[in-house]
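Complex record, four chains
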Amino acid sequence: MILVMKSGATQEEIDKTAQQIKTWGHDVSISKGEYQVVIGIIGDKQDLAGKPLHTLPGVEKVLEVSAPYKKASREFHPEDTVIDVQGVKIGGGHKAIIAGPCSVDTYENLILVAKAVKEAGATMLRGGAFKPRTSPYSFQGKGEEGLKMLVEARKETGLPIVTELLSEKDIDLVYQYADVIQIGARNMQNFALLKEIGKLGKPVILKNGIASTVKEHLMSAEYVMSGGLNDVILALRGTRSYETAMRNTLDVGLVPYLQKLTHLPVIIDPSHSAGKREFVSALGYAGMAIGADGMIVEVHPCPSCALSDGDQALLPEDFDYLMKKISKLESWNQKEWKKEFGSMQSSQLLKG
Amino acid sequence: MILVMKSGATQEEIDKTAQQIKTWGHDVSISKGEYQVVIGIIGDKQDLAGKPLHTLPGVEKVLEVSAPYKKASREFHPEDTVIDVQGVKIGGGHKAIIAGPCSVDTYENLILVAKAVKEAGATMLRGGAFKPRTSPYSFQGKGEEGLKMLVEARKETGLPIVTELLSEKDIDLVYQYADVIQIGARNMQNFALLKEIGKLGKPVILKNGIASTVKEHLMSAEYVMSGGLNDVILALRGTRSYETAMRNTLDVGLVPYLQKLTHLPVIIDPSHSAGKREFVSALGYAGMAIGADGMIVEVHPCPSCALSDGDQALLPEDFDYLMKKISKLESWNQKEWKKEFGSMQSSQLLKG
Amino acid sequence: MILVMKSGATQEEIDKTAQQIKTWGHDVSISKGEYQVVIGIIGDKQDLAGKPLHTLPGVEKVLEVSAPYKKASREFHPEDTVIDVQGVKIGGGHKAIIAGPCSVDTYENLILVAKAVKEAGATMLRGGAFKPRTSPYSFQGKGEEGLKMLVEARKETGLPIVTELLSEKDIDLVYQYADVIQIGARNMQNFALLKEIGKLGKPVILKNGIASTVKEHLMSAEYVMSGGLNDVILALRGTRSYETAMRNTLDVGLVPYLQKLTHLPVIIDPSHSAGKREFVSALGYAGMAIGADGMIVEVHPCPSCALSDGDQALLPEDFDYLMKKISKLESWNQKEWKKEFGSMQSSQLLKG
Amino acid sequence: MILVMKSGATQEEIDKTAQQIKTWGHDVSISKGEYQVVIGIIGDKQDLAGKPLHTLPGVEKVLEVSAPYKKASREFHPEDTVIDVQGVKIGGGHKAIIAGPCSVDTYENLILVAKAVKEAGATMLRGGAFKPRTSPYSFQGKGEEGLKMLVEARKETGLPIVTELLSEKDIDLVYQYADVIQIGARNMQNFALLKEIGKLGKPVILKNGIASTVKEHLMSAEYVMSGGLNDVILALRGTRSYETAMRNTLDVGLVPYLQKLTHLPVIIDPSHSAGKREFVSALGYAGMAIGADGMIVEVHPCPSCALSDGDQALLPEDFDYLMKKISKLESWNQKEWKKEFGSMQSSQLLKG
């Protein structure tokens, strides 16, 4: 942490502030500029997280300098985390393709999709049994009946199943059936739920919030991890902006950015990002091109009879086409780039 | 609902689409323009909420024309809702001032604040026992011990108590002590929680989400109300934008806007909006000036020892100053404005 | 400036970076934390503005600590600037109300409005002769003919005239007639135009950009002021967000925030902020309540025949009502607040 | 256009409104729903652009149904526009790679970069001689001297040159040297400038504004095209959001979205989007993967001695690596997708 003092801060204020920080168990390093004094706090420990640094005498700004997410940070865990879901791996070069209907409706549709996506190359099956809907009058999901259908589909195809958990109450129920637990955008900061699932043993896909920052996304992963679970997959489903062309705004540049900050796998959700079937495949292709560790995508045999988000569902043949394109795609490899060019800046400077 | 067809939509597509809508039990009215055809759906019932209108053949856009929130809408409930909290009223001209610490820390601080805010004119006491914190390593609240302190403070001052509920698991505990249940920004779309509290009998303050729209805020109120509860207070705590001058961006113009759409009371939260004590009072004053039904504001005797959000807490004397200013303020009265000027537009046109 | 080094920065990188800064004529102060090194640059001069600090070896972040706008900053000019427009003052406690049609259309309408707003208490007359329109097919303004009508209206009423300048080419023409030059949102960063008008002698109203930050707004004022002109008025017309309830999002908290950073007068534009007549008055009232140095508001006798932005124009009687309300309003006085409470934080801390 | 009437609109209001529209020369089609009446305006001509439809009696909302940009729209010009710049083509399958320094500094650097990017496969050379800088104290460009250096570099390499125009005053000067005129984000709505360049004969690259919508971007292209020029290239350089991970937020999904709406070529600017060299290449790769018609990218031999935006410049060898990767990349082809799947939705419905 660095405290930037107000330009007119008095020596008394500087002393009081330094004193207070020492009381909290930290050393300080005071650096005086022409107009301003800066106090560096040495030993940037997590126990300062709750301290009211802004209110100390004469303080203008408080600047964080190291990541407040420790378990999620690559700083303290340089190797990629590889998560194993019933033999299907994700992270560290293993790409996972998770496909299936937005919500489970009929058994026939589910099996049809499950077989089709498996055939096309998907490695896991998604399907919602509990649905977070903006309106209380919209279809809310099939509940346990839907979970049971997913289990049947797993039996038929061998694909591990991914499904959303909405409520602390449903934890026992959902954990009984699912292989991977999905936490949606609206619950990204439902901290009570995050704490609970962090104590349990199944991998979690954590989507970013509707307008969360990258840092908040990582802090929510940290909530889960602080419970003991390491198997967290970060999913990018776009964020809200004033632009309504796509359903949400997905900056695929965040894929390599996140991969730099964290060792956890990072996947994209082109369905919720684009929001219109017409652009889902193109966006999924771009996300895989930039090096995502996988994607989660909605597929339905009859989008116009889907009970939720039919607008964004790919048709099975459509998904097959996308998978064929992806299979021939050489993804960008940021690690390789870094090895070749990451250190050139400073050497260049010496010439410059 | 109105369906705008693509400019090249064929007669066959128009017919199929009209046919499908009739299958769902609605009549249609087809209107042909020079370039485009528009299909109006007659009998705009809630059972269309889940239908995949976007995917019908030839459809370009789906336009909603009436509010999807029925219970919260002023359209179907023209009179202001007045909520009575242990004799303290809010709505319909009654203004409520809810003040107290962000989180309950020591009993001494709480009682000191409770007495001070009561003295200054507050009508309810706020205080957090369960705190939603971005970091799992920050102070998470005193829990039941905090709730008990609030009850003591209520005994001392007679002020009803407002406290936040974070988790379905804590419902029984919190309802045992609190007079008003607060749902924070991060849980505005925790639909599982909203459904539960809608079945219970205590008034709810529902804050807007971090980047929610007005419509989503109302839809979340509708979730609570669909459970049976009518006593919902909407609180504006600002939303996220690229600007970091204030902690959040509060457009106080949303106060009269919301009051037009809904019969529920609308209050402001200048503490979370401004985020810095220095601007909290000014913003609170502006919000009361434009006609909010009240405000919820953080007050702490020693901001620098507060365990959360000390930066934005007013000092007790500070709050007293604000209350004195507000007591002399004549709020804008949008209803009065509407009575005088609301219908002038059309009469003016006749002259024009 | 402060350079925060990467956590693994080598001693060689630190030395190279420190060396480079010294080459640019600045001393450094190096402060070592547990994980990170921070380099403070002493003598925070403007000539570092163009230097590629981010690219120095081992640098993680560059933090600015003092305002890059010197002429606009209150730091170097503590007293409020009072601008005198033909005897009408604004700033330092003088409030200016600028009213009139969005665009000048007919002479009859203009005179009718000019007399009405003068009667109601306006101190200047606004009216557009050159209009920036999103569509090239929309009405683009009356040009010189409009300027001449404004001059006539000034003769009739004595009100100084405020009009928008869109193009470098029109500078001579507009300066011949106008008393105050308005620069709109779309030209806030038309630096070529800002430089030109900074060399001329008439006061300027500079609106914020469509999604500008407070800092960018001040930097654009600095562009004008770097030409020599001191008479700049900052106008807040709201910014773009995902919310479409109002035309733009105006956070009136930015009024005291800006007044803290700059000595220039700060006014609000409730017409472009709210965008709908129904909410313009309420928002204008809130903006004056929080202490704006004035407002600029659109008034038209027949909104439905206005050639631009009729939706947001107040009727003359409507404006009169607003002015009567404002005349009885006691504005928030942030300076008074600061005098009473601004220093309490630190004294409180001593007790805490 | 469609007018949605208020739910309580009277027959008199409906009649008056219909009457007024007929006065403006348009037929109407009135459609009555259960709660609401909708008036369709037949003959959606551009002369309604300036009409105050919102203020007509009883009108709740005005909905646009067809594109207000006619010349830029694919609706009226289905074939891709192919622009020829001195033999270098862009659009309709021809991809253009425009590379070079942010601003021209020394002749040595420029020639070094020009040769290097040509060697690597660039088809045009970019370089700024006039720079729009947020601070008036930052380097503002070399002016005519810079333009002359670009001409020299063109002679050496044969690459056509692209350079930014900031001011109406510099039009003659810049047109004398440049092959393609670039209009930057800050001038996207400098309508005076757009009108002027639309009358001249050189191709224009129009970047999107800092927070412009896709529609506004197209409307600005329409401004240029309404002057007579057809050769407009749209460049996506990202927009502002609350997220600061990247310099701007670029949703590459807008590439196929724009290509659907317009026949003009669409390129990406990964340098200003990512803002940090480390992510520029990855983002450029993703943008080309999704099917952009080209890219404009900053390359400098010594980023730390660049006079502007050194942070985001690729090194020449870095650019070469990117180009090699791109040469092996199979871009997504949305037209091919559309041919195979674009019409499946409705046929699927018939089965459903």
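Note: Residues 2-63 of chain A form a domain with the Alpha-Beta Plaits fold (CATH 3.30.70.1140).
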